[in-house]
Specification:
Layout lengths: L4 E6 L9 H6 L3 H4 L2 E5 L7 H9 L2 H22 L5 E7 L1 H10 L7 E5 L5 H7 L8 H10 L36
Parallel strand pairs: 1-2, 1-3, 3-4
Helix pairs in contact: 4-5
Length: 180
């Protein structure tokens, strides 16, 4: 019989090949019988493309996140009638795509960001990851106040679909209200 659960998965920033995590997750018997769609972000053909197009330019990176979230939304709209439980998940950058889609009129029943938190301000400006962000960009972001707009939880409808984040046990990088 056909599966009633669809899992739409978006890969992480440097996850090449893009199906490593879904193959690992499919080892869990509960997930073997689900249907999967793997989303591949723009500029993810090689690590060289990632470095040249995404990491080097903030606007291109943000456009890539929004484009991936838009593709996920389109899939949800198109396949909603076929599945009882559509789920959106992703690891790292894919988790950000998951949270971004959840922040505006969510279309999935469940959101599962894997090692990705909604407070991008801490990630981009204060975490260990911030070392790869140019200092001038961090300073400008703090001066211009756009950092406060990076917390995706401020856009969530508390009555909307659940977010079940899978974080490291002692994760100091990402914090969700449920962890506090």
């Amino acid at each position: 019989s056909a599966s009633d659960t669809l899992i739409v998965y978006h890969h992480g920033l440097c996850e090449i090949p893009h199906d490593v995590v879904p193959r690992a997750l499919a080892l869990f018997s509960e997930l073997r019988h689900c249907d999967w769609i793997h989303l591949k972000g723009s500029h993810h053909g090689s690590l060289n493309q990632i470095a040249r197009h995404l990491i080097a330019d903030r606007d291109t990176f943000l456009r890539s996140l929004v484009a991936s979230a838009a593709v996920a939304r389109r899939i949800a709209r198109k396949l909603r009638s076929r599945y009882r439980r559509p789920v959106l998940c992703g690891i790292s950058m894919g988790g950000l795509v998951t949270l971004l889609e959840r922040s505006h009129e969510p279309l999935f029943d469940l959101y599962v960001p894997l090692v990705a938190g909604p407070d991008l301000e801490d990630v981009v400006l204060r975490s260990a990851f911030s070392r790869v962000v140019q200092g001038s960009v961090r300073r400008r972001a703090l001066r211009q106040g756009w950092a406060q707009r990076l917390d995706l939880t401020t856009h969530w409808d508390p009555e909307g679909p659940p977010v079940c984040a899978l974080l490291a046990r002692s994760d100091q990088l990402f914090r969700l209200p449920a962890q506090q």
